Amino acid sequence: MGNNPQTLKEMQREIDDYINQFKSGYFSPLSQMARLTEEVGELAREINHTYGEKQKKATELPNSVKEELGDVLIATIIMANSFDIDLEETFKENMVKFNQRDKHRFERKDEK
Question: Per its UniProt record, what CDD domains does this chain match (predicted)?
């Protein structure tokens, strides 16, 4: 697989290969949801520190929005794998929905 997956399918496969090397395998859906929620909270905290009024304490290590967003992505892929959800297919289905439902929801750049 390599260290540079190019598609969601490859990312899902790489994470599945990683998790399946352990006896415990995938955690329960509730544990996965707790982890995803934790990661989203860490992303929110980092965004608040970077763009909000609440600055980090001098004793806190610097972090990044990129790193926290990556953790959210990994937790999402793990959850999708455990539910046997193809994220590429899901993405395509959702884009069809967005392009139909939200077609006139926001002012478009090309409209006067």
Answer: NTP-PPase_BsYpjD
